[in-house]
Design goal:
The structure is a homodimer of 391-residue chains. Chain A is an alpha/beta fold and 391 residues long. Chain A has 2 domains: 3-127 and 384-389, Enolase-like, domain 1 (2-Layer Sandwich), CATH 3.30.390; 137-378, TIM Barrel. Chain A has helices spanning 59-71, 88-95, 105-125, 130-138, 162-175, 189-202, 220-230, 247-256, 270-279, 299-311, 326-335, 379-389, and strands at residues 3-12, 28-40, 43-50, 79-80, 85-86, 146-152, 180-183, 210-213, 238-239, 261-263, 288-289, 340-342, 359-360, 363-365. In chain A, strands 6, 7, 8, 9, 10, 11, 12, 13 and 14 form a 9-stranded mixed beta sheet that branches. The first copy, chain A, is globular.
């Protein structure tokens, strides 16, 4: 059993959206295919993944460093002999050969994307949906096959006023979602509060159904001003007010903001998350940790993060994986996380779940019959993936 | 005045060395040429830099993201009008367009290398050595044109015993250096202490003339064990015992280890260094901060780090730039840092200073007559640089 080839192609995100900090118009995303010599129903098993959203394609690093390390390793050294399958931990170690400590984001996106594609292959070899392969190894009996999903939306756009914002948000409710998130910090605080109150009207005035996201765009003072303005609404969470690495400022915000805070999508290693937990003043079973699995070394690293979190009194039930896609849906369901993101239509084919996925009262039921992560159920994305592998 | 082109080429480091964590044999380094339309003595001014050592070449990121942003910007928007020269801060801001907060090392190496090459051009336009251009802007009257340099050596190599180690170290003393550093953690603690005592004999038994570097390779327990074993020798410093981002563990080590500690080469942003200062338990005017300028957004970012450090009671006199090369020599001299590294012969042409540089009693005198960073004085390296620019 061995990996025959690993291929990458970079596809434009084709998004015109912007948040408080930057726009996505020049961004490309890496799609990866891991081709194995395992044959099921007459065809080789291929694992797929993409590098989520918000970080650039990284095919050069893959081709220069991570892919040759895997392909030149002894194939037997990459096998989980007990399960007769690929061993994602051993493959991760091989990808890390020749890498210096620290400086994670230079490699964690490329390595994580390959690692997640390997999980897709592993689950296909087991002929199970990926969340069941994950559950079996790390969370026996604890999967959540019915997963709560909320929508990250409420984007700024040129010429977009409150009516257009409400139209966007109503659209999500019409799709079956019950919890929404909107951007703040891209307008004045008074304008943002008007936008917020308008959306709160839409979600029955219940702050629990609405989160806000500042995308790290606020100054120190701005972060406190928003905290004070947002506090009365008891929102679901207040996300990434400032620099994601300024753990002390986060703890100062947590001192005055009592509803949940959320952060983590811009941390790329277990050690970074541990620093957040140690120094960021966040509260277990209250605040929300948002990790992007393919951007931070993959699924295996998420399980290491949870192990570390457990020693600090946190559980998987405080984690929401960043990135609304099949990968985050499966890791969330497999490890029994709090909830999952969704970005319907936002990032084109890199948004959303299987084409036939239905959201009912905010929940998605995972497909127990489709092996792997389930990209095969996303026709537009899977066309590119299968062109890449020729399978 | 404008930048006409920015070119990159990746050159193998050609090093067979290893430290406690990894070997350098597969590593390439990015060389950058920034070609301007400023003509001096009939030729266009070209700025050069390379991405130091220990991190991989990153030409793909430069070509996909940073270089097109500079070349497509309005040239006037990149100028320091007061000085009639390029403005490195404005060029840095342009390179950061479309980049998400956090996740620094994915871009800080590529951006920092281009930024340092721009400083080379700036100083050439001013017809001054780079350290004088830096001094003038950030440290008036505070440059150290005579800079203390120590040698980072004492490497492990297959078959290398104590006699060969002593031969290596004696070679540095013969070159005029007085302070040395050796690797620890790649052998057993008892073997390492024997190596250490042998080298201490060579430097007149004075611990102040010897530092040790564990390259993040020790376990938690190993870090404490080495701290206890090293403490009696009152060494110059004990560098990077463990994970460079485990600030709490560093503070626990600082609690029991009273001679200087050193770290920082694996931090890539001002915010990371601030976290180290806030949470790492390090002691101003005692411990040593080691930042790699071309790997962490360039010279301008170093000045921001020093501004931040000042608010915590630290000064430039606690900093030693990582990387023994002309770039670190000029930023160290310009900002009046504690000392500078040197790696004679270690990383081939990416090691060392001008071919005619002389070390006398541990000091190098910077050349006041050569404009820029002075790569023109390194014949082997400059051959590749000038081939890249065709100038």
């Amino acid at each position: 059993m061995k990996i025959i080839d690993i291929r990458e192609t970079a596809i434009p995100l084709n998004s015109t959206l912007r948040n408080a900090v930057f726009d996505f118009s020049q961004m490309k995303t890496s799609i990866v295919a891991v081709i194995t010599d395992v044959i099921i129903e007459g065809k080789p098993v291929v694992g797929y993944a993409f590098n989520s959203t918000g970080r650039y394609a990284c095919g050069a690093q893959m081709r220069m460093r991570f892919i040759p390390r895997i392909l030149s390793a002894d194939p037997d050294s990459l096998i989980d002999k007990e399960r007769n399958n690929f061993d994602p931990g051993k493959i991760l170690s091989v990808m890390m050969q020749g890498e210096k400590p620290g400086g994670h984001s230079d490699r964690s996106v490329g390595i994580g994307t390959i690692e997640v594609a390997i999980w897709d292959a592993i689950a296909k070899i087991e002929e199970k949906p990926a969340f069941r392969s994950i559950e079996e190894r790390y969370n026996p009996g604890g999967a959540k096959p019915k997963m709560f999903v909320y929508v990250g939306g409420g984007w700024y756009a040129p010429g977009k006023g409150t009516p257009e914002l409400l139209e966007e948000m109503q659209g999500y409710l019409d799709m079956g979602y019950t919890q929404l998130k909107m951007k703040v910090g891209g307008a004045s605080i008074s304008e943002d509060m008007k936008r917020l109150e308008a959306v709160l009207n839409l979600v029955d005035h219940d702050g629990w159904n609405l989160a806000v996201d500042a995308n790290c765009g606020l100054s120190r003072q701005g972060a406190f001003d928003y905290a004070k303005a947002l506090e009365p609404y008891k929102l679901r969470w207040y996300e990434e007010p400032t620099d994601p690495l300024d753990f002390q400022l986060m703890s100062e915000i947590a001192d005055i903001y009592h509803a949940p805070l959320a952060t983590g999508e811009n941390l790329f290693s277990v050690q970074d998350v541990q620093n957040l937990i140690r120094f960021g003043g966040l509260r277990p079973n209250h605040d929300v940790l948002q990790i992007d699995p393919p951007q931070s070394y993959g699924f295996g690293s998420v399980t290491q993060t949870i192990k570390m979190l457990n020693t600090h009194g946190w559980t998987a039930n405080s984690i929401m994986p960043h990135g609304g896609n099949q990968m985050s849906l499966h890791i969330a369901a497999g490890l029994g996380m709090l909830l999952c993101e969704s970005y319907p239509n936002t990032f084109g084919m890199f948004s959303g779940f299987a084409d036939d996925a239905e959201v009912i009262d905010g929940y998605i039921e995972l497909d127990e019959t489709m092996p792997g992560i389930g990209f095969e159920g996303q026709s537009e994305l899977f066309t590119i993936m299968s062109n890449l592998s020729n399978e």
